[in-house]
Amino acid sequence: MKHIVKIMSLLVVMLAVWVGLLQASIVPHSYTWLLPIYSIVSLGCYGLLMVGVGLMQFPTCPQESVLLQKDIAEAKEFLKKQGVDVSSD
Amino acid sequence: MELADRAVGFLLSFISLSIFTYYTFWVIILPFVHGDHFVHKYFLPQEYAILIPVFAGVTLLSFLCIFIGYVMLKSKKKKA
């Protein structure tokens, strides 16, 4: 319940800021009308950028991968000796 | 393959950066430019700056609803 309250209050604050900007006329009027859509589009762009950057910097560990394959082969042999069926069908 | 991952990541970030710069230019900088500057040729009329994101958002929402409905129907049919 508390999480929803936090999100709702954040939304209400942003709405109040937007309406306040509309009334006070600090920025030209046409900009204020486009502000919510612009912030949503830029938020989506920012998310996509973070995903792309994370993908580019994802660390792969080739040595660990080789060791893991060795471990898997070893475990399969051991289990086959004990009589368990570990074929991947 | 980490090269494929890196290529996909680079493509995603490139797409997002280009969309961001294009949209920023469209919404913020273009109203300050003269009406008969040549740059206006490369940008659609300003109403589309609102229509295209709203249309994309509505499409995304409807696709999500359709997907959820389809999954719910399939699970109900499997149980019955």
UniProtKB/TrEMBL annotation, chain A:
GO terms for cellular component: dolichol-phosphate-mannose synthase complex; endoplasmic reticulum membrane. Residues 1-24 form the signal peptide. Its main location: endoplasmic reticulum. It comes from the Eukaryota. Pathway: Protein modification; protein glycosylation. The chain crosses the membrane at residues 34-55. The keyword Membrane applies. One of its GO terms (biological process) is GPI anchor biosynthetic process. Pfam families: DPM3. It is found in: Endoplasmic reticulum membrane. It is a multi-pass membrane protein. Keywords: Endoplasmic reticulum, Membrane, Signal, Transmembrane, Transmembrane helix. InterPro entries: DPM3. The keyword Endoplasmic reticulum applies. Belongs to the DPM3 family. Component of the dolichol-phosphate mannose (DPM) synthase complex. Stabilizer subunit of the dolichol-phosphate mannose (DPM) synthase complex; tethers catalytic subunit to the ER. This is Dolichol-phosphate mannosyltransferase subunit 3. The lineage of its organism: Eukaryota, Viridiplantae, Streptophyta, Embryophyta, Tracheophyta.
UniProtKB/TrEMBL annotation, chain B:
Pathway: Protein modification; protein glycosylation. It comes from the Eukaryota. Coiled coil: none annotated. One of its GO terms (cellular component) is endoplasmic reticulum membrane. Pfam families: DPM2 (PF07297). One of its GO terms (biological process) is GPI anchor biosynthetic process. One of its GO terms (molecular function) is enzyme regulator activity. Belongs to the DPM2 family. The chain crosses the membrane at residues 7-29, 49-73. Regulatory subunit of the dolichol-phosphate mannose (DPM) synthase complex; essential for the ER localization. It is a multi-pass membrane protein. It comes from Daucus carota subsp. sativus (Carrot). This is Dolichol phosphate-mannose biosynthesis regulatory protein. InterPro entries: DPM2. Keywords: Endoplasmic reticulum, Membrane, Transmembrane, Transmembrane helix. Component of the dolichol-phosphate mannose (DPM) synthase complex. It is found in: Endoplasmic reticulum membrane.
